[in-house]
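The aim of this short unit is practical: by the end, you should be able to scan a pair of folded records and say something sensible about each. We start with the first protein, listed as its amino acid sequence and then its structure tokens.
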Amino acid sequence: MADFDLFVIGGGSGGVACARRAASHGARVGLVEEGSMGGTCVHRGCIPKKFLVYASHFRHDFEDAAGYGWSVGESRFDWPTMVAAKSKELARLEGIYRRLLKESGVTAIDGRGALLDANSVAIGEERYSADTILIATGGWPFMPELPGIELAITSNEAFDLPRLPGRIVIVGGGYIACEFAGIFNGFGVETVQLYRSDMILRGFDMDIREICCDEMRKSGIDVRLNVNAVKLEKNADGIALTTTQGDVLEADQVLFATGRVPSTAAIGLNEAGVERNHKGAVSVDSGSRSNIASIYAVGDCTDRVNLTPVAIHEGRCLAETLFNDNPQIPDHRNIPTAIFTQPEIGTVGMSEEDARTHCAAVDIYKTRFRPLKHTLTGRGETVFMKLVVDRADDRVVGCHMIGSAASELSQLLGVAIKAGATKAQFDETVAVHPTTAEEFVTMYEPVGA
């Protein structure tokens, strides 16, 4: 008899979700984690990033208050205080993760787990057998091979810098790069962002990409497109970064946010015969099973949809399938997504570009305006909203927004898209006034087809 029915390698969102759900159905579950329980989301991603977004946005809030009669007075930001408060909360959250695992009956082990074969895991000198093994080791920031790259940091280190830099160069154009550009800019850091292509946020709706870039520049971020880093050198004032245009940028800190790769090295995948793709991601079928019948994988290590709620969804589906006689296949369609730029982005469903590929004909509805709040603050920030409609059946197949509360709205719009709501049903819904959200149900005339 095996030691466990299920053994999980990785204590992030997907691994913990699967372990707890499986244990709730009576499975004997073990889980190993070499770092802090909670994984990227809790310690190097979603949660600390949102804290920094909140903190950096107070600068705008203080400025905006004057338009409503408030005299805020002199304000000062203390980076060490913020870092300490953040770290204290993350330690509390890790404690909750450990408590929940224990209360669920999961045997949690600290250490680095590696496969020995299809049914065995080694943790140091210890050996454990399991009928089923789950790989949930997440991802890790990618760093390109450039001269002087050791002088740069990634998003991992950005949360615990000993001091706030006065000048920062951020290399990359994805959501992590754009979010950190907004964060450091909000703290008053002189911020330059370099991106090798002609527009940030590849893969998102083009209107959203262009307007986000416009808003970032309006806020004071020096976004430079079609520019990349060539080398980094240490100098008396900090770091000198040479670009592909031949410019030399002086900075106190350089942050590379140039993508993430699956964390699948040195965990015994080759020894167990588990197949990986060209990115190193574990190759799995629709049910998260690898080519080895007893080995599964969920979350970022599979490089499907690299989002925390998706990893949780995949993990729970697997537990239901294997241990509750309730087969479930993860659904990766119409996933609501938020980007915590400033202003933030919320999106669900197809971009206009994707819809024009998949639908015979589409109608496009969109609007851009200054929100009511800023009519008194004088801030030039705008809101943009867009609906993409399949003309064949009037279904709304894409909702996109940039502006305050976009992330919150995208969650609710995700329900509507998932339910197959039509444009007529959007139009029939009574507006809540005065709100920004009402624009989603009052865009009556298409602007493009």
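Turning to the second protein, read its sequence before its tokens, just as you did above.
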Amino acid sequence: MAGAELIGKEEIKEVMEVLETGVLMRYGLDKERRGVYKVREFEEAFAKYCGARYSLGVTSGSSALKVSLTALDVGPGDEVIVPAFTFIATYEAVLEVGAIPVAADIDETLNLDPEDVERKLTSYTKCVIPVHMCGAPAKVDRIVAAAKRHNLLVLEDNAQGCGASFRGKKLGTFGDMGIFSFDYYKTVTTGEGGMVLTDSKALYDRADWYHDHGHDHDPAVSRAMEGRTILGFNYRMNELQGALGLAQLRKLDHIVAEQKKNKVAIKETLTAVKGVGFRELADPDGDSATFLAFNMPEEARAKRLQRALGAEGVDTVCYKDNLWHYLPNWEHFLAKSTANSKRYPFADPSYKGKVTYDRSGFPKAEDLLGRTLVMGINVKMPTERLDAVRRGIEKAAKAL
């Protein structure tokens, strides 16, 4: 549960400062808010923490993806390479801007395979979205290098890896843009909410304008009276979310440190289980330790281990069976059931490519996800809970 485990007096203090002004919207009402600008403060603190020049708070990680793709001018006729293993929102955001997602395979990191990126390129490819799944980095250096060779844009989906890094550089800062999610289950939570990062002033401006109906946000002019450059929509983060984000951000390093400590303790016990291997980490020091992924040599043995662990009260997920994170399980997506009767953008005549989503297109995902189990790592794991998990693993191992 990460940040949700630590909601307390710090979050209450920040939220009360907003409620005392009575101003919940991030823009305008300057006199009434009496200098309280929580979203702005959160954006500035988050950008500094990540080492980015610009940061924009939005309503969710999903909207952060759509806002970023719009800022990058990805749209009808374009293809975007996305890993087969991700949350469905990554694909939905591509469809929302009128582009077509192309499914690529994963590698032993459980993230986008840099080699398959190049295999899936076509003349319509415009952007690549590496997703840092389950809190650990993809081989983002190789993905960015491949994208540069082919003049492609890179949008990092770091919804699950807040606080993680790759070789000392925070995730979300390698591509042209990066996004984060702050929903209730994320490392840092504002209930809902998301963030967009970029070092480009031009991309930041387009994202900023688009996320608030095209408003230019000229500080010298009232928000309702300034000029507008593009049409947009409403994806604004509100002041209560900004307040929560500020308090949670101050706890982020502590959250990651505690997760790492607890992960090591559990991993040590799993190491003794015959046949168990572990997910490859592109940078072990950069792992946020939100999840522990371990595998067996065959899928059938992994399923037996999962049942044995479950019988001892140790919960795990096999993502090959998960309905929200693995493309072959999305029946509505495979049926191209978009939210309009014309099945746009799949049936858009401006798209000249051909895309398929058959399992044969990502054999590594079929193998790895079928024999890999994933365990969530809590921030708060008292000794008695850790001992119970370790005992459960030991008993499950004997039952195999």
